[in-house]
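Predict structure. Chain length: 216.
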Amino acid sequence: MASTSIESFYSEDIDSTKELPQKQKQVLKACLELFASKGFEATTTADIANKAGVSQGTVYKRFKTKEQLLQAVVHPLFSKTIPRAAKEFAEDINQYKYDTLADFLKPTLHNRLTFATENKQIIKILFMQAANDPKLLNELVVPIKDVLTTSIPKVIDTLKARHLLVDWDTPRIMEYVLSIGAGFGAQIILFNRKLDLDTVIDQAVEFLVKGLSPDQ
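Prediction complete.
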């Protein structure tokens, strides 16, 4: 499964924005990288200018305050980048045929937990901004909800139809699977835990397969 980084998608999205001058594109891309690595408060105008290869005056030529600059940085993340990342994940799920529940769970969990590990600082920024703005929260939820209500349930329904999964309501099965993934994701993103992904995924898959396999 593919796992394109948020920064890579974001860079492409900014480069494709016709209304921004090239130097302002450099500023936004530099800001995202620095806010993710150093944090918003710790990042200075000099840091941004140096990273973007522009003068400090250029940094605030279009955006007059640091807060306006942050808003300019995150808006494309919500409107363009996250939907693209969600679409990539959904397309990956849909292109495979899974012969067992483990065949679905192992690559899917590995993909999402790797994505969380590599993008955890940016994901923190996203959730912090979304928590204070209902519109941004909706933009964040919609593409994720599409994956959760379409792609994953389709796999679960197929496995149930082939008698490879316990015959419970699909939402109930989803709750168990998602709670495991979200639990590890929270440890990575919120608590900065460095997990041995191969080990924790093997253990999680063993637990879920035992609990969700049909009675013999």
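Summary: The radius of gyration is 20 Å.
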